[in-house]
Design goal:
Blueprint lengths: L1 E4 L4 E3 L6 E3 L9 E4 L4 E10 L4 E3 L2 E3 L1 E6 L2 E12 L3 E6 L2 E5 L2 E5 L2 E6 L2 E12 L4 E4 L2 E20 L3 E18 L4 E10 L2
Parallel strand pairs: 1-4, 2-5, 3-5, 4-8, 5-9, 8-10, 9-11, 9-12, 10-13, 11-14, 12-14, 13-15, 14-16, 15-16, 16-17, 17-18
Antiparallel strand pairs: 6-7
């Protein structure tokens, strides 16, 4: 397990030589960054086979969790996740670009009380929601979802989302807005859903 408390992390790989975080065998407990006033950066990073943190009664459901911090993701790839959320963001301001989520056990990207931007990101083989937001302000642009076991975009708990150029194929629901949330979408295509 990797935990950074009150510290930012900078993982900056090269496009041809990304940083890989994973287990030699099976799964690993994943990582958490919390309470940092400095911005973290994950660029050209591949995170594989993360499960969830369970240490001495302290349990987090996300394979990767950022809590109460700032983070920039560029060309992040999260795959073969075994936790409830592949990436769980809580009370976090973030920007995500050019990223990929593939083969997640449950939700791919879970946002709780965040302020974020997601651009040019793809979700493939997600067993639950591709993007799940609660109490969040979010901008989504150029996002594709292929095979979600539940919702492509799940907007809840007074979230406010604007989205542009969204494609969802093979999900139970393309988009769900609930609990006094608001979503404005410009140009969405939904197939086999």
């Amino acid at each position: 397990v990797f935990v950074a408390n009150e510290s930012a992390i900078i993982f900056k790989g090269a496009e041809d030589y990304p940083i890989r975080l994973g287990a030699q065998k099976g799964t690993w407990m994943g990582m958490m960054v919390l309470n940092s006033t400095e911005q973290s950066l994950l660029e050209n990073v591949i995170i594989e086979d993360a499960a969830y943190i369970d240490r001495g009664g302290w349990i987090l459901t996300g394979g990767v969790t950022f809590y109460n911090t700032l983070v920039l993701f560029n060309r992040l790839k999260i795959q073969n996740n075994h936790g409830e959320d592949a990436l769980n963001l809580v009370h976090t301001k973030y920007i995500m670009t050019n990223s990929l989520f593939r083969n997640t056990f449950s939700d791919a990207l879970d946002n709780d009380f965040c302020n974020g931007t997601i651009e040019n990101t793809v979700f493939i083989d997600v067993n639950a929601d591709a993007i799940d937001v609660s109490g969040t302000q979010l901008e989504v642009k150029n996002v594709k979802v292929y095979k979600a076991g539940d919702k492509g975009l799940s907007i809840g708990e007074r979230s406010n989302v604007t989205a542009e150029n969204v494609f969802v194929e093979q999900a139970d629901f393309g988009v769900a807005s609930k609990d006094l949330s608001k979503i404005v979408i410009d140009n969405i295509k939904i197939n086999k859903t």
